[in-house]
UniProtKB/TrEMBL annotation:
Pfam families: RecO_C (PF02565). It comes from Phytoplasma mali (strain AT). GO terms for cellular component: bacterial nucleoid. This is Recombinational DNA repair protein O. PANTHER family: DNA REPAIR PROTEIN RECO. The lineage of its organism: Bacteria, Bacillati, Mycoplasmatota, Mollicutes, Acholeplasmatales.
Amino acid sequence: MVRTPGIIYKISSYQEYSKLVFIYTPEGKKTLIAKGCQMIINPYRIWIEYLNLIEFENKQNSLFLVLNKAFLLNNYKNIKKDYINIKKASLILELIDKTIDSHDNHLPHDVIFQEVLKALQFIQTGYLSFALRLLNFLGYKINFNSLLLKSKIIIDVQSDFNLKENNNLSDVQIKKLSLLRSSYDIQEIKEKLPILNFIYYYYEFYLDIKLQNLY
């Protein structure tokens, strides 16, 4: 057995007193059974919460485990005390939930996991940076230079969908998008709506995903 960190991105009730804990780790997605954690006397009860970073005893190459010898690494209290920041963090976890396949061993989960932690660290704009950077790993990298030159995004998937035209992106906003993808430590961006629209329609068009926590 090894000890592994993981971020809780979803929780559901399981049987009478237990929960299923869906967690993203450097190995990928795992599902933990937290037995009896809905009981007041259970020591894990306050740890098993959405948007908590925990460490647990992990059996490698297994997707379904019983939670054992876990402890809390970070409850992101600074994020949870602010509704707007919770929404931003929720987008990061929604992207994990909806875009990453539990059985896809080709994704660099260890790298993506570190991206998640960086995005949470710089939450003000990190949630947007993560949404853009994740596309690189999923095979939908945006060529911003082509977008500036030709007013059209060119990626591996052929499409006539002109995101610049449909979202009224200015060249300045395209450069901001490129900057967001290149770094997490970016100051708050004004006039974000065109950028939010860009990300929303990009994910909807290419991945058939409607992001509920983007706005």
